[in-house]
Amino acid sequence: MSEDKKSLNFLEQIIEEDLANGLDQSKLRFRFPPEPNGYLHIGHTKAIGISFGLGEKYNAPVNLRFDDTNPAKEEQEYVDAIKEDITWLGYKWANELYSSDYFQILFDWAVNMIKEGKAYVDSQSSEAMAEQKGTPTQPGVDGPYRNRSVEENLDLFMRMKNGEFEEGEHILRAKIDMQHPNMLMRDPIMYRVLKKHHHRTGNDWCVYPMYDWTHGESDYIEQISHSLCSLEFKPHRELYDWFKEQVYTYAKDKYPMLPKQREFARLNLSYTIMSKRKLLKLVEDGIVNGWDDPRMPTISGLRRRGYTPAAIRKFVETAGVAKRDNIIDVALLEFCIREDLNKKAPRVMAVLDPLKVVITNYPEDKVEWLEAENNPEDASAGFRKIPFSREIYIEKEDFKEEASNKFFRLKLGGEVRLKNAYIIKADHVVKDSNGNITEVHCTYSEDTERSIKGTLHWVSIKHAIKAEVREYDRLFLDEAPDSHDDKDFMEFINPNSLNIIEAFVEPSLADAKVGEQFQFQRLGYFNVDNDSKTGALVFNKTVGLRDSWAKQKPKQNNAQNQQKPQNNRPAIEQIKSYGKKYDRMKEEQQNKAKAEIQALAKDVDYKDLEPLFGTSVKKTGTRIITMITLGVLLENGLEKNDAIHDFINKALEDKNQLLVAEAKAIG
């Protein structure tokens, strides 16, 4: 299917059907209606993307309406944060509205319903009302106040509004049917007494409308054509329709169009909590440092961690619009940010766990400023100068005294290339009294044309800048931390979700500004945190260069996994199995497969991969999965040789855009 003609999702099909049946396109209106009782999270991005996306597709207005009916939990702070998040994602709303704008008209409509015998004041305890309501299999029974006179109901409701009663003394209920099969239709509450200060209306009101009454009527007042909400509201649709039909009888002249409610599946993410109440608990209990902690799934937390609007919008688009709830692997979100940052993030060098290297045949007082490419994905990014001197830092894990042929890094007697610099050979080590290696003494060679398997990043000790690096891991160890009936979600907190490191970065980062993003070569993507100051840099790790979680994922001890046979085939054989179908997969399947290939690639030896370079041009899928695997080996230190250069160059000339894109990523 061509890229410019994608199939319609089921919501678009509904709208197209309505247009075909006579709905004027100029009447299309959508809304995003958050409750200002917390910060928006990644789950909300789907609802945001759907409503604003449809607005963009049909050139229709989208209202941002705050359903602010509960002053006990709502704050201006949340309103401001929600507006900031939506703006940051790149969306523009037509009108900024509040359900509180409609408090008077909603109250007047409720009075009309009382006069028509469709609403009444109930004065029972909540326990008594719950008992009378019945169960899904047992009908409810009428309460003792259901048949109060219109006059008494009007009197009590006005006195509720005037503050004569305390909270819990009286409520206003719709008079529908206590035996209705849908329990939501068994005389639902419309108003309750709340003597709380409202963030917009102050102390003007002592009664506040319930969500089910407010939400649909606000849609109706705004003449929303399609009220789109998540699946948990599907049972509410019948009540939504009943309420709007009642008010239509005395408001149709001013508001001629009745909204249509339709539901879509929520966006659920693995290893993630989506409940605002539970997210608030993490904040209040000090598990995280506020709503914008980079470990939080809030949009503000993702922004602070270094996620981009483009990556989040791509993630929502790839996850798609579904009719049934499902859980999206968080690896897809991480894949989307990697893809985005790979194109735009400047490459720099940083060492997080330093090991001192002394180049014994390099002059002690000599400093060379070498040229380094800023981003091979962006020809306009240019070059920068980096200093090289006798003493440098490399990562501790990049050196072993003895290692196998699969270790493409530095070992005694072995050679590696220093990125953008020389080839060095490890001659001997210096150890402390406990036998720990403190220095590696090397010699360098100016013959940089030789083919060397390994390439390491480094920083000059004399010029290195200290920086605080905050490495983040997933906040929960369980894929669905709030799905266990017998355990509290807090039991699955990852105690190692934050690791603070004193690192060393190259001097070009001295003036890095808050929010700027970089690829620390061979380590991952990082951005400058809000806490960063001149002379005290702080970086957040956004995401690694590949999915490292797949191998660490705790095995679920359940019957299903116990019965699943272990795959003992070599990693290269498992990767090759993707080749026949990779180029024919849908985008979401490709993203998942790519993450799995990258995880397997860590166990692949170059000698097993090189024979695939000669794959027939017709076998595009195999060439793509070979390119993905090669990318991981290169990131792990494999040096490019003539065979690799030839393979990449041939791919760049291919007609298949998937193959070309993978080749560009490592070219």
TrEMBL record:
Residues 555-568 have a biased composition (Low complexity). Gene3D superfamilies: Glutamyl-trna Synthetase, Domain 2, Glutamyl-tRNA Synthetase, Domain 3, HUPs, Ribosomal Protein L25, Chain P. The keyword Protein biosynthesis applies. One of its GO terms (biological process) is glutaminyl-tRNA aminoacylation. Its EC number is 6.1.1.18. Keywords: Aminoacyl-tRNA synthetase, ATP-binding, Cytoplasm, Ligase, Nucleotide-binding, Protein biosynthesis. PROSITE patterns: AA_TRNA_LIGASE_I. The keyword Cell membrane does not apply. GO terms for molecular function: ATP binding; glutamine-tRNA ligase activity. Residues 345-444 form the Glutamyl/glutaminyl-tRNA synthetase class Ib anti-codon binding domain. InterPro entries: aa-tRNA-synth_I_CS, Gln-tRNA-synth, Gln/Glu-tRNA_Ligase, Glu/Gln-tRNA-synth_Ib_cat-dom, Glu/Gln-tRNA-synth_Ib_codon-bd, Glu_tRNA_lig_a-bdl, Rbsml_bL25/Gln-tRNA_synth_N, Ribosomal_bL25/Gln-tRNA_synth. It comes from the Bacteria. One of its GO terms (cellular component) is cytosol. Residues 455-529 form the tRNA synthetases class I (E and Q) anti-codon binding domain. Belongs to the class-I aminoacyl-tRNA synthetase family. NCBIfam families: glnS (TIGR00440), PRK14703.1 (NF011291). This is Glutamine--tRNA ligase.
